[in-house]
Automatic annotation (TrEMBL):
<feature type="domain" description="SRP54-type proteins GTP-binding">
    <location>
        <begin position="167"/>
        <end position="180"/>
    </location>
</feature>
<protein>
    <recommendedName>
        <fullName>SRP54-type proteins GTP-binding domain-containing protein</fullName>
    </recommendedName>
</protein>
<dbReference type="InterPro" id="IPR036891">
    <property type="entry name" value="Signal_recog_part_SRP54_M_sf"/>
</dbReference>
<dbReference type="GO" id="GO:0008312">
    <property type="term" value="F:7S RNA binding"/>
</dbReference>
<keyword id="KW-0342">GTP-binding</keyword>
<dbReference type="GO" id="GO:0005525">
    <property type="term" value="F:GTP binding"/>
</dbReference>
<dbReference type="InterPro" id="IPR042101">
    <property type="entry name" value="SRP54_N_sf"/>
</dbReference>
<dbReference type="InterPro" id="IPR022941">
    <property type="entry name" value="SRP54"/>
</dbReference>
<dbReference type="Pfam" id="PF00448">
    <property type="entry name" value="SRP54"/>
</dbReference>
<dbReference type="InterPro" id="IPR027417">
    <property type="entry name" value="P-loop_NTPase"/>
</dbReference>
<dbReference type="GO" id="GO:0048500">
    <property type="term" value="C:signal recognition particle"/>
</dbReference>
<dbReference type="GO" id="GO:0003924">
    <property type="term" value="F:GTPase activity"/>
</dbReference>
<dbReference type="GO" id="GO:0006614">
    <property type="term" value="P:SRP-dependent cotranslational protein targeting to membrane"/>
</dbReference>
<dbReference type="InterPro" id="IPR000897">
    <property type="entry name" value="SRP54_GTPase_dom"/>
</dbReference>
<keyword id="KW-0547">Nucleotide-binding</keyword>
Amino acid sequence: MFVGLQGTGKTTSVAKLANYLKSKYPTKKILLVACDIYRPAAIDQLKTLGESLNIEVLEKGTKVNPVDLAKEAYHKSHYEGYDIVIYDTAGRLHTNKELMDELHQIKKIVKPAETIMTIDALSGQDIINVAQTFHDAIELSSFFITKLDGNAKGGAAISISYLMKLPIKLAGTGEKVGDIEVFNPHRIVNRILGLGDIETLTEKIEEAIDLDKQKKDAKKFIDGNVDFDEAEKKLKLFETLISSMTKEERKNPKLLKEPSRKQRVIKGSGKTAQDFNKLMNQFEQAKTLMKQFKNMPNNPLNQLK
């Protein structure tokens, strides 16, 4: 049984889970139930997804009572031998008592093995209170984090799981029905912190503690006075190229416009001329961007001057 706020990707997540279970257990008989009668598009979407996956969808349009539909699906699953039934409920605000009561009634009837709340990876920390309200009303069992692609990091989801002592079991990583994976906490922690290992974590913690150093580095960067000592920390992708430069070249990147220096760095790093040019272009773009940012009105970093 899927629950959550509107717009968190419940219907797509239902189809993703159905597709995942079908591929993992090809002999299992699966039924999807369209209990979101308040949004006709949700019913059509679930029907379309069900047809594409060759999975049956039970729907009665928008005139039926969701509780009655859930009851019908429950009996149908028993009489017709369905192994897995997934209920797609309507998105609702946690403050809407009538709709929360509806969820409670549905759960009481169908007795789901899992009550999964979808959490948008872009959600802020306020989602914690929302999830707690859902949990108090219907007792959640786990979370499905959605839209964990692009720039989304999912920090709020980690907070919810920790504070509510409930697991995040699955994650949606794209728009296609196959874009689903079993949740891996190590991946999301690395994604949030931008880390690859414990050693890097230690370095970042030490750097965060040194507030004076942070302010000096920030001021240097926004002033556009960036050299390759800073760039090496930021552009890990080009670490080999940068390590092939001399100290003088790192401090004065303009020297690298000389063809002989450029060729020496490329040869010494084992990279291509394209890699070198990409590094130089991104470095110059970063300097330009930081200078523009410095001149923006009400720039909070100007206090670092």
